[in-house]
Amino acid sequence: MNNSLVKKAIEKVIKQNTGIMILLLITVCGVVLASLVPPQILRLIIDNHLVPKSSDKLLPLAVAYLAVLLFIGVFDFLKAALLTILGQKIMGEIRMEMMVKLESVNALFFTTNESGSIVSRFTNDVEAINSLFTSGVIGMMIDCLKIIGIVISIWLFSAALGMLTLILLPVIYAITRLFQKKMLQAQIDNRKLVARVNNYIAESFRNIQMIKAYSKESYMEQNYTERLLHNYETVEKVNFYDSIFSPIILLIRAVVIAIIVILSSEQLNYLGISLGMVAASIDLISNLFTPVEKLGMELQNIQQAIAGVQRVNDFYNEAEDDEKDNTLYFADIIPQREEFNLSFNDVNFQYERNNDVLQNINLNLHAQDKVAFTGRTGAGKSTLFKLVMGLLEPTSGSITINGIDVYSIPNREKRKIFGYVEQKFHMIPGSVADQISLQDESITRDQVENALEFVGLTDYVGTLENGLDTQLNNDNFFSQGQQQLLAIARAIVTNPPIILLDEITANLDSITEERVISVLQKAGAAHTILTISHRLSSMIASDMIVVLENGHIKNTGTAEMLWQNDDWYRSNIVLERLTWR
User: Fold this and answer.
1) What is the pTM of this model?
2) Residue 1, pLDDT score
3) Residue 319: how many other CB atoms lie within 10 Å
4) 137 vs 61, 134, 172, 250, 457, CA distance in Å?
5) What whole-number distance in Å separates Cα of residue 359 and Cα of residue 395?
6) Does 472 fall in a domain?
7) What is the three-class DSSP state of 96?
8) Which one, of 313, 175, 150, 306, lies nearest residue 247 by Cα?
9) Which residues pair with 430 in a beta bridge?
10) Are residues 278 and 287 in contact, defined by beta-carbon separation less than 8 angstroms?
């Protein structure tokens, strides 16, 4: 897929705002034409009134001169206002389309891109694209039209002077082109480094308590400084090219004006033009170099925008989840909760540019089975859960429920099938009820209350100011154990047949852990439960334990069987018992 989100957004906004575009076109023409009038009035004033020293009709010409300058100001104001309106509309359209894309982008994207980098595409890169219109392409187009009009005006005064101007333009173009190439690469590098800085700031805020607890402020500051310095290096490159561009243009302008004066002097009189034409030509030459000077800034804005366009389009062209079978419904996938199979069929998986994370996983589970996955850190347990829920697609093989590939199940049905509880409870803006329903309108108030009752939090929530409707602005309303119970309520509110628990008791004290486990054991009476646990002694009662090692299934069996024939399992149980003593 090679689509341009930016192009689509521009075309859509233009079609929806034809009136504004017509008005902008009129304004642009007004700016260009009005800018050519003052030098002509100046020529008339000098040749017809100052040189002959005649004051006849001098006042009307002076008023006309001022009036034209006023019109130029009005046209410039209208141009800026209309460009701002269009730029904001385009920026809003791009962000809306990016948000739609975010909902369908493949989960692998989030494993290889940091959150700060993604946020930077939605903010900095889109704002850079906005500058493409407010102070970039349109401004450059206006300035190019001004240059064309000025060249024609000068040619009408003197063909020799017009020829000199035409010779000058390729020189200016060559200089501009040189700086364009240099600045483009610097801007792209700067965009990447800004994303790194943004991500580092976000990660620092997210882990600020840990940083302070371990006195790592100086370490974080050192890394932040290093990233900033790399960013400043690219900024300095951009500033260097921009700072020497304008002086070069100014020097060329001064030389050209000096040549015009010398060639028009009484001694040479090479151009054969009047004093008024000389003054008008100098004014036009100044007006010629003014837009050229602006081209430097406009060029910089365009380079920033191009870098932003590339990054936004790259995001828009990221791989999406395969098209789901929207005819599939929960009742088709699991007609009877008491009878279904969850099968792992020679499952292999690897992340981009990494070695295999999971290899040749084969399991066949049944309704209401209790299965615990354990093994060393990095064995692939959490990745396996993401595959079970269809968030990731196996590199080869498949995971099926009653023969239906879980990756093909539409997202709207997944919450009815899977309930997922992570190690950390992620709170969303909203009420207590919203924490459980996730603002899903298909979930009723009764379902929320039943889930809360199931995990034993009804009495506590009743003590809050507005009960279930209490708005939560931070996570201080609930202890860590209560947050895990809320997470369980969130997972079971739709009464899914399969519940996945990812190391949910790892950060709990023993008393809270027992309470959470008792709730899960109660849930196990009517659910298939898959759990990940490193602490084997606190593992909920399981029909089968699966030991993973280096992406393979090393062993399977009951706790008693593994105690007898798995050295790793036995040694970890003994170690945990000694630790708890």
Assistant:
1) 0.63
2) 43
3) 11
4) 35, 8, 18, 23, 59
5) 10
6) no
7) helix
8) 175
9) 472
10) no
Domain carrying residue 416: 341-424+496-580
pLDDT tens readout for residues 503-530 = 776 656 666 666 667 776 666 667 888 8
CATH (domain of 503): 3.40.50.300
Question: Helix-strand-coil percent breakdown of the chain, rounded to 5?
Answer: 65, 10, 25
Burial class (CB in 10 A: 0-12, 13-18, 19+), 128: buried
Buried b (16+ CB within 10 A) or exposed e, 71-81: bbeebbebbee
Question: How does pLDDT run across 225-256, given as a tens digit for each residue?
Answer: 888 888 888 888 878 877 887 787 778 778 87
Tell me the per-residue pLDDT of 105-147, one tens digit each, with 9 for 90 and over: 877 787 777 777 788 888 888 888 887 777 778 888 888 888 8
One domain, residues 155 and 93: yes
Co-location of 23 and 138 in the same domain: yes
Q: Are 61 and 44 in contact (CB under 8 A)?
A: yes
Tell me the C-alpha distance between 10 and 353, whole Å.
36
> Taking Cα atoms as reference points, which of 475, 438, 432 lies closest to residue 455?
432
The closest alpha carbon to 225, from 188, 202, 200, 256, belongs to 200
Q: Compute φ and ψ for 533, nearest 5 degrees.
A: -150, 135
Surface-to-core class of residue 460, CB atoms within 10 Å of its CB (0-12 exposed, 13-18 middle, 19+ buried)? middle
Shared domain for 117 and 185, answered yes or no, is yes
Q: How many domains does the chain have?
A: 2
State how far the Cα of 39 lies from the Cα of 239, in Å rounded to an integer.
34
Which whole-number Å values give the CA distances from 357 to 144, 294, 334, 343, 548, in the listed order? Answer: 57, 54, 29, 19, 11
Highest mean pLDDT (candidates 70-74, 272-276, 570-574): 70-74
> 64 and 191 share a domain?
yes
What is the residue type of 51? V
Token pair 């050519």 is found at 36
CA–CA dist 101, 262 (Å, integer):
63
The residues pairing with 532 across neighbouring beta strands, listed in sequence order, are 373, 502
Beta bridge partners of 364: 343
- The CA-atom distances, in angstroms, between 464 and each of 324, 429, 444, 469, 477 are 42, 17, 21, 9, 9
